[in-house]
Design brief:
Shape: globular
Strand content: 25-35%
Radius of gyration: 20 Å
Largest sheet: 5 strands, mixed
Strand order of the largest sheet: 1-2-3-4-5
Number of helices: 7
Distance between the termini: 61 Å
Structural class: alpha/beta
Order of helices and strands: EEHEHEHEHEHHEEHEE
Oligomer: single chain
Helix content: 25-40%
């Protein structure tokens, strides 16, 4: 007979207020299927407690995708510096999953609580922020606002943020004209570059319009676009000196 599986309990958390930071103790198991609950509930905790250290010693994850939910919740809470989060206590295979999937570039992982507290002052290697935009007349303005807030928080020069805003405006407008009902914008800051990705849902995978291509050629250092099962993904990158 195969060995019996160890019983698992649903993910739960305990909040302990500290001096200058709050401790979130995670217990139980986490699976990719827990995504909606984890993103909603944990992001609400991080919004209310924007300087948090997560104790993961009691956490059991099913795989890298499950651990990524912690990063998704942090991103949903506004990301660094609006929400500061560092993990500690992941051991063995779970720590390897986390590092190999480059999740530690988004939310740092440390070996102890003091090291995690110290890391709250350090920006992650990869900064991410995303927003879902509803098709309408204000969508270009909302896309520009997302990038503008990133520029202010991440200290991006206007020479980068302005072309990124102009490119994003044209891409989201083009997506709406192509029939997209919903648009998601993802902004990522990595060493030496800024990337803006627009995910257009239910746009029948229409090709980019000529004006959109001209705008991307003019303002982005590099760009690409591809059809997806849900619509179209367009990504533009900008060099940051």
């Amino acid at each position: 007979m195969p060995p019996a599986k160890e019983p698992t309990s649903p993910l739960r958390w305990e909040l302990v207020s500290g001096l200058g930071f709050d401790l979130v103790r995670l217990f139980g198991s986490i699976d990719e299927a827990d995504g909606p609950r984890v993103r909603h509930e944990l992001s609400a905790i991080l919004i209310a407690h924007p300087r948090a250290v997560a104790d993961c010693t009691g956490l059991r994850a099913s795989g890298p995708a499950a651990l990524a939910l912690l990063c998704h919740a942090h991103e949903r809470a506004g990301g660094w510096p609006a929400s500061r989060l560092c993990l500690y206590g992941l051991g063995g295979e779970q720590a390897r999953w986390y590092r190999e999937a480059a999740l530690a570039e988004q939310v740092p992982l440390r070996d102890s609580m003091p090291e995690a507290v110290a890391a709250l002052a350090e920006p992650p290697r990869r900064l991410r922020r995303s927003a879902t935009l509803v098709a309408g007349r204000r969508i270009a303005r909302e896309a520009r606002s997302v990038i503008d807030s990133c520029a202010a928080d991440w200290k991006l020069p206007r020479s980068v943020s302005t072309p990124a805003m102009l490119a994003a405006s044209e891409v989201v407008n083009g997506a709406v004209e192509a029939g997209a009902a919903e648009v998601r914008i993802l902004v990522e800051r990595e060493p030496g570059r800024l990337a803006v990705t627009v995910l257009a849902h239910r746009d029948d995978s229409a090709e980019l319009g000529t004006l959109t291509e001209i705008t991307l050629d003019a303002f982005a250092d590099a760009w690409s676009t591809e059809s997806t099962p849900y619509g179209r993904r367009t990504r533009a990158t900008f060099v940051v000196d």
